[in-house]
Amino acid sequence: MNVKLLISTLPLVVVGCAAAVSLISFRRHYPFALRMLAAFWVFNFCIDLCGHITKYYGVKNHWLYNFYFWVMYLVLAYLYDGQVKHKYVHLAIRAFYMVFPLLVLAESLVSGVSKLQTMMLVAGSIFMIFLAAAYFRQLYLSEDNASVTADPWFWFSFGFILYFGCTVPFLGMLNYLWGHYKEFTNFYYSYFSNSFAILLNLLIITGFLCQRNSRKSR
Amino acid sequence: MPEKFSEVTLILFASTLIILLLTGLIVVSLFINQRRKYRFHREKFEMKTNFDRELLRAHLEIQSQAFESISRELHDNVGTLISIAMVHIRSMSVSATETEKVSEVDGLLNEAMDSLRDISRSINPENINRLGWQKSFIAELDRIRKTKLFLVHYSEEGVPLAIEIQKQIIIFRILQETLNNIVKHSCGENIYAHVGFLNNVVSISIRDDGKGFGADVPGEGAGIKNMHSRAAMLPAAFGIESKAGSGTTVRLTYTETNAINVL
Fold first, then answer.
1. How many CB pairs under 8 A join A and B?
2. Are B30 and A136 in contact (CB < 8 Å)?
3. Phi, psi of B213 (to 5 degrees)
4. What is the pLDDT of residues A174-185, one digit of tens each?
5. CATH superfamily of B132-263
6. Positions of E strands within chain A
C-alpha cells in the first residue's frame, strides 16, 4: 500500500471509528437526536466506503457525494431544529427546507448530478455553520451551569463549524480548481480537506463518548 | 505542489486560517463565559447560604431572648406568687381536721415550685452557658426521670470537648426538642441516651422503645424541621431512624474544628 493510498484511506478509517463509537454508545436511554445522528454516521461511513471503492476502480463518484451532501444537510438541519430553541432559527430551518430542494433541483438541471454541486455545497455548509453558531449562542446565553464539555452537541457543533468553515472555500471552488490547478487540488484535498474531515470525526467521537444525558436533546 | 503559487491558493489558505482563528475564538469565549457563569452561580449559592444562616441565627437569637424573658417571668413573678402563697398557707392557723388538707396543698405548691424552677432553668440560655450543654442535658434527663413516666438510661464515654457557647445552646436545643418529642409522642417506657467523644467528634444518640413511626414519617413538623435547621447551622450530621413498633433513634454527630478536651 503506497503512502498516497494510505493518506486517502485514513479519513475512511476515522469515519469508521466514529460510526463504530456511535453504534457502541447507541444506548436505549439516548435521546432520539443522538440515536439518529449515530445512524446517520453509519450511513456516512457506508457512503465514504462506496466513494473509496469507486475511486479505486476509477469510477467518477461525484454523484454519490452530491447525494450524500443532500441527505447530510437535511438530516443535520432536522436535528438542529430539536436542539436550538429559538423561533427565528426554527423559521430559518423551515425556509431552508423549502429553498434547499429547489436549489438542488435547479443545480441538477443546470449542471447535472454527475458533477459536484458546489452551489448546493456552499449554501448547505453556510447554513450548517449558522446552525452550529446558533447552538453556541444558545450555550453562551444559557443559565445552565453544567459544563459544556459534557454536552455532545457542543462537540458536534464544534466539529461542524470547523469542518464546514474550513472546507467550504475549497469545496465551493472545487470544480474550478479541478480544471485549473489539478495537482494543487489533489494536494489540498489529501492533506487539508481530509485533515478537517478527520478532525470532525474525532470531535464526533468525543461527543458520543462524553455521555451526557443531555436535557437539550430531544 | 508543482504549480505556481497563485492568488487562489492564497485566498484558500487565508480563508481557512481566518475561519480556524474565528472558530478558536468562539470556543475560547464560550469556555471563558462558562467559567464566569460557574463562578457567578457559586457566589450566588454562597450568598444564599450565608443569608439563610444569618436568618436562622437571628431567629435563634430572638427565640433565645424570648426564652430568657419567659424564664425570668416564671422565676420572678409566678415563682414569687407561689412562694407568697406557701408563706400564707404555712402561717395559717387551722383546726386539726384541716391540717392534713393544708399540708397537702403545701406539698402541691412545693411540687409546683420545683417544676417551675426546673422549667425556668431548662429554658434559660444563661443556665446552659453556665452549666454547659452536657450538664444541662443530664438535668433535662433528670427532670424526665422525676416525672416517673420513663426510665432514663444515660451513658457517656471519652473526654468531653470544649465547644463554642453558641453551638452548645444549639446542641442542647436539638436534644431538648428530641426529649420533648419522646415525652409527647413515643408512648415508650425507656429512654437510652449516649454521649461519646472521640478525638474531636461528639456523637449523641437518644433512643426510645416507643411506638416509633413507619411510613407515617412526621417529617413536616416544625419541631423536626427546626432540629434539621439547627444541625445544619452547626454544621452537624443529624438523622432520625425509626420503624413502626420498634422505637426511634435520633443521632447527632458534631465535629469540633478547634477542639480542646476538657475535664
1. 56
2. yes
3. -150, 140
4. 888 888 888 888
5. Histidine kinase-like ATPase, C-terminal domain (3.30.565.10)
6. none
Q: B262 in helix, strand or coil?
A: coil
Quote the pLDDT of residue A216: 43
Residue contact A139–B37, C-beta within 8 A: no
Q: Is B153 helix (H, G, I), strand (E, B) or coil?
A: strand
Cα(A193)–Cα(A10) distance, rounded to whole angstroms? 12
Phi, psi of B193 (to 5 degrees): -115, 135
Q: How far A163 CA sits from the closest chain B CA (Å)?
A: 9
Supply the ipTM of this predicted assembly. Answer: 0.76
3-state DSSP of B195-207: EEEECCEEEEEEE
- Per-residue pLDDT band for A52 (boundaries 50, 70, 90) equals confident
Domain extents for chain A?
A: 3-209
What's the burial of B240, exposed, middle or buried (CB within 10 Å: 0-12/13-18/19+)? middle
pLDDT single digits (tens) B132-188: 888 989 988 998 888 888 899 999 998 888 888 888 888 988 998 899 888 888 888
Q: Could you state, in order of their start, the residue ranges of all structural domains in chain B?
A: 1-123, 132-263
Pairwise CB contact (< 8 Å): B41 & A162: no
| B38 DSSP β-pair partners | none
User: Is the Cβ pair B23, A158 closer than 8 Å?
Assistant: yes
A116-155 pLDDT per residue, tens:
899 999 999 999 999 999 999 999 888 877 788 888 999 9
Over the range B119-154, which residues count as b (16 or more CB within 10 Å of their CB) and which as e? bbbbbbbebbeebbbbebbbebbebbeeeeebebee
